[in-house]
Amino acid sequence: MKRLLIKLNAVDLLASTLFLVFIITWFNNQTEVAFHKMYSIAIYVLPYIVFRYIASKEYYYFWKRIILIILSACAIWQSIYAILQVIGICESHNFMFTITGSFHNPGPFGGFLAICASLFIPSIQEEAYRFLRTLYYVATIFCIILLPATLSRTALLAFGTSMLIYALSFQYFRDTIKRYWIIAVVGISLLGVSAYLYKKDSANGRFYINKISAIAMRDNGFKGSGLGKFSTTYGETQANYFAPYIDNIIEGDAPEKIEQERMIADCPEYAFNEYMEIGVECGIIGIVAFIVLTLTAIWILYKTKSIWCYGLITLSIFALFSYPFKMAVFCIFEGLFIAMAGIKANKGIKTYAPIHITAILAITFIIAGFSRISSSKKAEKLLEKSITLYDIKYYEAFVEDCYSLTKELTHNYNFLFALGQSLNKCGDYNKSDSILILGSSISCDPMFWNIMGNNAIAQGNYERAKECYTKAFCMIPNRLYPLSLLAKMYHENGDTSALLHLSNAINSFTPKVESELTKELREEINLIIHESYLQKPAPTPARY
Questions:
Q1: DSSP tag of 200
Q2: Which residues contact residue 59 at a Cβ distance below 8 angstroms, ignoring those fewer than 6 apart?
Q3: Which strand (E) or helix (H) includes residue 231?
């Protein structure tokens, strides 16, 4: 009997391994937020499976043209839509920016244009049909004109890098670079420095987020924190990072480096670096699997001179400084590029077992979790109808309408905060704490801890209140609000010495943003000091 030769496809095997890592991570931490993220991952695996099947073998070039035609139409439509936003005919989807396309932020819009342009430019060289070449030309012109208008440095960097690699595939360009390499290095360096200085604070913020994420990844090791747990893990790591210096920060004599970093600190929902986020949630194995898959796919596509190589390079660089995989269009791009790499790597007799296993696991998870997702969607629709009650401070009515939705919405930290605060206002402090603890387990917003501190004061537990307010300040030590709450607690508890000491620190404290609110907080504490400790009652007239 002739032995069957089985040669595994490296891309398919790596993609299946990464998906398996996601499943194991979810299995080890089966929270509601982990389930919702795993469900999204399972859905976004489908484009990879679909493209892997339909675009293989003799149908590859047919589907390649179909995909590029669709992308060209989308790019042209998005560009025209953006132009209409600029001239005022259409409204932007973000009041802070003029141009967003159909996205909610110009950054992802710029990323979309960069990926499309990096596919169209090499396609022009390959395409035999004049009509399609013209279509790609038009789409490319639109993309290149609109890309700088998005002001997305990440998109420009990703596009520029992929096109530089594409240019290096031509001998003439390689010879030119060798001849003028000093000018090229100086030019690239100047562009890099200019891009950094253009939005220096934003760039420093991204570097700082990467630093805290790296510390969190180091602390979690191989196991990771769990799917959907990046935000709360980031908050805990940041709090632990600043905790040893917290007294110095309050007194205003913290080391210069810590002082600079505490002014950058915030509570991001995302890592603004997809690699780091995977590393924090899935551990070192997760980030290594993702990087190896990406590099392997890029190498195979580059060696086979495939246009998809440049799209994947653009997306991979964009993912270093943004959050593209939170949006469906970029997940579809990722699935497309990995599938095309799998097709290009598929030579000789090979097994499709990794693809079949991945497809079965993903589809099984989607079917099994469909009813659970449907319940959450229904609960979110009910929440939309009732959230106005919270906005207008009808807390009792909001609790009455929405408390029953807690089970379906434990993955929604905005809902958990609104419900926890409403229960606090209604005087149900124990229930409020239980909801706020759930919220703090999926969010790094220190306001959860501030409200828990308020609950503790209402119950006379001043020690617990101090812990909560201190934790809130450690999480983001550039906000004045936790310190003002702590000062009020000292006043209510009768700790005069601690109150007077903290009030002096509050008056000299430098928050990240000075505003009317910070001014009011200081005035409120000073008024407490003045009325309670500095004003002496008038002497009672003596009676004769």
A1: H
A2: none
A3: helix 230-242
Contact partners, residue 107, CB within 8 Å, separation at least 6 = 150, 152, 154, 155, 322
Residue-level pLDDT at 291: 95
Q: Which residues contact 412 (CB under 8 A, 6 or more apart)?
A: 380, 383
**Over the stretch 68-122, which tens digit does the pLDDT of each residue have?**
999 999 999 999 999 999 988 888 888 888 899 899 889 999 999 999 999 999 9
Asked whether the beta carbons of 279 and 213 are under 8 A apart, the reply is yes
> How many Å apart are CA 166 and CA 337, to the nearest integer?
16
E strands, 386-507, are none
> Model confidence over 168-223: pLDDT tens digits?
888 877 777 777 777 777 777 777 777 667 777 777 888 899 999 999 999 887 88
Tell me the C-alpha distance between 219 and 475, whole Å: 17
**The two three-digit tokens of residue 529, written as one number:** 């000091």
Q: How far apart are CA 455 and CA 430, in angstroms?
A: 8
What is 250-296 written as a DSSP string?
Answer: HHT---HHHHHHHHH----SS-S-HHHHHHHHHHHHHHHHHHHHHHH
CA dihedral defined by 436, 439, 445, 446, rounded to 10 degrees? 30
Whether pLDDT at 543 is above 50: no
Distance CA 118, CA 140 (A): 9
